[in-house]
Amino acid sequence: MNIHENIKAQLNNFIEKKNIPHIIFHGPSGSGKISILYYLIGEIYKNIEEKGKYLMYINCAHGKGIKFIREELKFFAKTNIQTRKFLFKSIILFNADKLTIDAQSALRRCIEEFSHTTRFFIVVENFDRLLKPIISRFCNLYVPLPIIENEKQNLYKYNIKTLLNFDPEAVKRENWIQKQLDTFIKSTERDLIKIINNFYKRGYSGLDIMKAIENTKHLKERKKYFLLIHIDSIRREFRSEKLFMLYILTLVFASD
């Protein structure tokens, strides 16, 4: 899929000049930030057999605090690797906006200390939650929602929609949760914990419930989209998927 060619051209320019900076990829959910990052990593290390030695991936949403930054991240950055000329190690941080202020301050010090051997790449949605001293040390690339079929597309939703056209099992899963949500809305007896545990065991997420809310015929349109806008605005605050799903269903229960 040929999208974000202008951003890829800018990254190719960095590579050709052998002058790759630290980079923050930021933009809305589903814009393709991670795909662009993987494109960059693939180009940097395309002729390297043991790429894993040069790469460290960190999901900061999984409770990574100042201890992790000071110990594991710093240990990787300090590790000596027989590198070729112009080659460096890369530390990739997803959801770095979830780091505490202290952890971000420790990260900033690591960036300052190891920039000669290591590049840091950050992927975030909420750019404003990063410390300004970190932002000032990075090239900031905004990744907008791509234009596909003459419309802005959320890649998560677009890919799911495309997948559903070819995957009967995916259609079956979507129909199942839709039926469960519709039954929940119409019922007067609602055991939320039981419902959430059932969803979770079957591998569903809060985003699946949001999709079912969007498609249900048992809520008024105005109320439905008020719910979806509100849920989307606060979903990044939840660290637990079960709590997120419970919050959604509690809102649905209170709104009917």
What does this structure look like?
The chain is α/β, with parallel strands linked by helices and 256 residues long. The chain is built from eleven helices and seven strands. The strands form two sheets. The protein has a five-stranded parallel β-sheet with strand order 2-3-4-1-5, sandwiched between helices. A hairpin with a 2-residue loop joins strand 6 and strand 7. Helix 7 packs across helix 9.
Note the total helix count.
11
The largest pleated sheet is described as: 5 strands, parallel
User: What CATH architecture of the largest domain do you see?
Assistant: 3-Layer(aba) Sandwich
Please indicate the percent range of residues in DSSP E strands (runs of 2 or more): 5-15%
Number of strands: 7
**Rg, Å, rounded:** 21 Å
Unreliable residue runs: none
Q: Give the averaged pLDDT, no decimals.
A: 87
Topology diagram in text:
Blueprint (H helix, E strand, L loop, with lengths): L4 H12 L6 E4 L6 H12 L10 E5 L6 H13 L10 E6 L6 H14 L3 E7 L7 H4 L3 E4 L4 E2 L2 E2 L2 H10 L3 H19 L5 H10 L4 H10 L5 H14 L6 H15 L1
Helix pairs in contact: 1-2, 3-4, 7-9, 8-11
Descriptors for this entry?
Rossmann fold, alpha/beta, single chain, Zinc Finger, Delta Prime, domain 3, 256 residues, 11 helices, 5-stranded parallel sheet, 2 domains, elongated
Short description:
By secondary structure, this protein is α/β, with parallel strands linked by helices. It has helices spanning 5-16, 33-44, 66-78, 101-114, 132-135, 155-164, 168-186, 192-201, 206-215, 221-234, 241-255; strands at 23-26, 55-59, 89-94, 118-124, 139-142, 147-148, 151-152. Helix 3 (66-78) links the parallel strand 2 (55-59) and strand 3.
